[in-house]
Amino acid sequence: MSGQLTVRVAGLGTWRLPRWLLADLNRFDTEIEEAVAVGDGARATRFLKQLVANVTEQGEPVTTFPDEASDPESGANAAPRVDLELPSSAATLEQLEKWLANTPLEDGFLPD
């Protein structure tokens, strides 16, 4: 397992973070899950904004993906490998409910 985590935030971009930050980010993830579970959109939005801010402030923006493979037929780069995808910090309660329902993880956006 790499010491880096690649996180894409919908509508904002992609960042690389040290994996040890995952524990800190999980605090926000837990709060978002709990807020969504009780239908508290304001609380969910507040913690989602904090989660996204932590990713963007503590991470290093990714503008190129040197490990991408090129498709020789089209000349296009393959999609970069992303460890986690987060919704936009402007997501509504309904969007967060759908996002959480469709995440491959059982415990929110981030692995525990």
Q: Level of helix content?
A: 25-40%
The assigned structural class equals: alpha+beta
Query: What oligomeric state is this?
Result: single chain
Query: Numbering strands along the chain, what is their spatial order in the largest sheet?
Result: 3-2-1-4
Total domain modules: 1
List low-confidence stretches.
Answer: 68-72
Measured between the Cα atoms of the first and last residue, the distance is: 15 Å
Order of helices and strands: EEHHEEH
Strand content: 15-25%
Topology:
Blueprint: E1 4-9, E2 13-18, H1 22-37, H2 41-58, E3 60-61, E4 84-86, H3 93-102
Parallel strand pairs: 1-4
Antiparallel strand pairs: 1-2, 2-3
Can you give a write-up of this model?
It is a single chain. By secondary structure, the chain is an alpha+beta fold. It has one domain. The protein contains three helices and four strands, in the order E-E-H-H-E-E-H. It has a four-stranded mixed beta sheet, covered by helices on one side. Strand 1 (4-9) and strand 2 (13-18) form a beta hairpin. Helix 1 (22-37) runs antiparallel to helix 2 (41-58). The relative contact order is 0.24.
